[in-house]
Amino acid sequence: MEKTLMLIINPAAGRGGYAVDLGAALRALDLGGCRTTLYFTSGRGDATRFAAQRASQYDTVACVGGDGTLSEVLAGLMQVKDPPPVGYIPMGTANDVATTLGLPKNDTVGAVRRILSGTPHPFDVGGFGTDAYFAYIAAFGAFTEVSYATPQDQKKLLGHLAYVLQGMALLPKLETIHTVVEYDDGRLEGDYLYGSISNSTSVAGIVRLKETMVSLGDGLSELVLVKDPGGVEGLGELVSSVLSQRFDSDKLVVLHTRRAKFSFDKPVAWTRDGEAGGEHTCVELCNYHAPVKLIF
After folding, report:
1. Which of 13, 102, 150, 293 is the most exposed place for a label (fewest CB within 10 A)?
2. Does residue 179 contact residue 191 with C-beta atoms inside 8 Å?
3. Is 46 exposed, middle or buried (0-12, 13-18, 19+ CB in 10 A)?
4. 3-118: which CATH topology?
5. Which residue from 52, 47, 79, 83 is spatially nearest to 65, judged by alpha carbons?
6. pLDDT tens for each residue of 225-283
7. pTM to 2 decimals?
8. At residue 251, what are phi and psi to the nearest 5 degrees?
9. Model confidence pLDDT, tens digit, residues 38-95
């Protein structure tokens, strides 16, 4: 039986690589029994609007783009009652969600085949304040501004290396932020270099949490806080520990929670799924338990 599929495409993602195999991808969808309608975004917020207004008319929604595009689509689906399952064709730079889901990256046809053969799985969505959402991470502190501060032309030219180079440029500016965190099981207060709430095993394409630590549809998010490592040597040891998936450092806090309220002495910049999330002195985050299903 033929199914209808809404395909939202961000033409700016992945250096426009989607166009190379778009014809083959559409043919694969057609042979797989999908009647596909294309929606092209032209600016921020378009994917959210498309999903919110049109998704209920389709059996499946899929998007081509980076993690930010997927985030926008999920934000739109949060406005839809009983939304259809979501397929993801990753064409971004870091592709953290694709890494977590084990999806082929920058391979339009391969990702389409996964949509056709995959299974919808419950997926938690993060809530940021009262009217904003995120797919896999909201964060503040060291390096979090790299993803949205890196110039678009550098992203297109250098890919993930652009993030690394921008991060290196920020090393002399690292500073801790006095933070109070109230979460499900308690309260933490201290000076932290970094903090995040996430639902992903991959962060910025570099840091990997153990798969046993993360369940994508359990209603729990991972709270991560990094204390001041005490100089470049300490920072190197901390980075080495994280990259080797050893999370036993006394400078690192990793725990699970359904909600978290962050309070600061001054406005602090946040990022949501690699995009600017504004500056806040107080922000409440929560986990919406499996309101959507992702196909993988």
Report:
1. 102
2. yes
3. middle
4. Rossmann fold (3.40.50)
5. 47
6. 988 877 767 767 776 777 677 877 888 898 999 999 999 999 999 999 888 899 999 99
7. 0.87
8. -95, 5
9. 999 999 999 999 999 999 999 999 999 999 999 999 999 999 999 999 999 999 777 8
Residues in the chain: 296
What the block records as the tokens of 183 is 């979460």
* Sequence ranges of the domains in the chain: 3-118, 132-291
